[in-house]
Amino acid sequence: MLGYGILIALIILIDQLVKHFIVITIALNHSTPVLSGVLSLAYIRNYGAAWSMLIGKKAFFIIISLVSLALMGYFFWKKRQQILYKLGLAFMIGGTVGNFIDRVRLGYVVDMFQLDFINFPIFNVADSALTAGVIIIFGALLKDED
């Protein structure tokens, strides 16, 4: 269990450090190419969700985050003998907490990774951890079906 706690803490720490770096190095609503035509680093304040959906619904996102964390904690305990589920949930918990910290502290989420080759929402480390967690759990569900 300690290893998963460390993983969660690392995800949160990396997320917050990257966000801090972006805020102090890139001007708001600007971007800097990292790989031309592929990836840029941007500084965007997201007051909603992906594609800026539900802008201004801070209380809604805080409540959803708390309910989600409670459910993930329950499933983490319930699936405590299944490594893939715990790993996926650890990624999801870390990502949820990372964005939750921003929403409570700032009133918005700092996003920075901009894919230049596709129309896709600008995202952050926490979003990436959430996505990785969902993929891992989906893989665990497929494995369970065998």
Automatic annotation (TrEMBL):
Its main location: membrane. It comes from the Bacteria. It catalyses: Release of signal peptides from bacterial membrane prolipoproteins. Hydrolyzes -Xaa-Yaa-Zaa-|-(S,diacylglyceryl)Cys-, in which Xaa is hydrophobic (preferably Leu), and Yaa (Ala or Ser) and Zaa (Gly or Ala) have small, neutral side chains. It is found in: Cell membrane. The active site is at D111, D127. Pfam families: Peptidase_A8 (PF01252). Pathway: Protein modification; lipoprotein biosynthesis (signal peptide cleavage). It is an enzyme of class 3 (hydrolase). Its EC number is 3.4.23.36. Keywords: Aspartyl protease, Cell membrane, Hydrolase, Membrane, Protease, Transmembrane, Transmembrane helix. It is a multi-pass membrane protein. The chain crosses the membrane at residues 6-27, 59-77, 84-101, 121-142. InterPro entries: Peptidase_A8. PANTHER family: LIPOPROTEIN SIGNAL PEPTIDASE. Belongs to the peptidase A8 family. HAMAP family: LspA (MF_00161). This is Lipoprotein signal peptidase. It comes from Ligilactobacillus ruminis.
